[in-house]
Task: inverse folding
């Protein structure tokens, strides 16, 4: 009788296994089974396992180990009394605002590392963990990125206002893209006026976090958005403010210049960009939101 399951991915101490079936029930890929009163794994285990670690986490007697993976399970992590209650979490979500005014105080690298360490535990599709981070703390680099986007946007606006230029752009864009550019022209010109008044509209003079992933794996936009949500809430708990930067995300993916500035790896796409810093503004009430829109079946 075997005393263990041992392959390139997993090690199971069968002598300590109680045949509780917790791993069987929880494994999304159905890779465990019991036969002749012994736990087994399917022959294709190494090809099918997505390394989610649920079998390790759910085992009540701690006999399942994933090789080469750190297990982060402080003794008190599952104690109910240490979990935030719904009201405290609800208040944190409502308290969070998109911050566009920051103090001229650098965020310690250790705090950003703490946020990113938390975010790496955010869920990803099929547990690909296709999430990478690039942090820009240098103010000159942030300004360089903002100035480059301003030049590109200003050039586009000027071209769209010129009849010949408009026809040239129309020939290069899809009908939908061109119509959207024309529709957004008044808004674009207003943004440029805001920038001329001294406002960093693209990055808000904060430090930057780019969340990106490998295009050959996919799931980048969803995985990045989930990670960003974790970062934004955790930042609030640390006294930091954040703001989503949709324009920056777009331009980072369109511009080879920005890709070079942030050293974006080849075949990577930015799924989300954030600015982060210490808020210079304090909010005293929660803005109203539309009523809940939901369908029940």
Result:
């Amino acid at each position: 009788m075997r005393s263990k399951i041992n392959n390139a991915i997993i090690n199971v101490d069968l002598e300590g296994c109680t045949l509780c079936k917790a791993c069987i029930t929880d494994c999304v890929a159905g890779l465990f089974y019991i036969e002749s009163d012994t736990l087994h794994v399917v022959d294709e285990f190494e090809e099918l396992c997505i390394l989610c670690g649920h079998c390790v986490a759910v085992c009540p007697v701690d006999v399942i180990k994933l090789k080469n993976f750190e297990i982060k399970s402080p003794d008190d992590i599952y104690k109910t009394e240490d979990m935030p209650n719904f009201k405290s979490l609800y208040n944190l979500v409502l308290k969070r605002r998109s911050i566009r005014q920051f103090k001229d105080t650098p965020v310690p690298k250790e705090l950003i590392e703490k946020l990113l360490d938390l975010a790496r535990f955010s869920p990803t599709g099929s547990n690909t963990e296709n999430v990478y981070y690039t942090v820009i703390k240098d103010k000159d680099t942030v300004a360089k990125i903002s100035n480059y986007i301003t030049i590109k946007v200003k050039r586009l606006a000027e071209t769209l206002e010129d009849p010949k230029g408009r026809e040239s752009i129309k020939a290069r864009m899809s009908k939908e893209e061109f119509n959207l550019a024309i529709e957004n022209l008044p808004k674009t010109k207003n943004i440029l006026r805001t920038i001329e008044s001294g406002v960093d509209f693209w990055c808000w003079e904060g430090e930057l976090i780019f969340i990106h992933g490998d295009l050959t794996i996919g799931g980048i936009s969803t995985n990045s958005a989930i990670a960003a949500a974790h970062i934004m809430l955790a930042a609030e708990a640390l006294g930091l403010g954040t703001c989503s930067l949709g324009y920056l995300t777009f331009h980072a993916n369109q511009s080879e210049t920005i890709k070079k500035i942030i050293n974006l790896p080849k075949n990577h796409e930015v799924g989300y960009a954030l600015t982060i810093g210490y808020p210079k503004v304090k909010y005293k009430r929660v803005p109203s939101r539309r009523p809940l829109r939901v369908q029940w079946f």
Remarks:
- The CA atoms of residues 66 and 205 lie 43 Å apart.
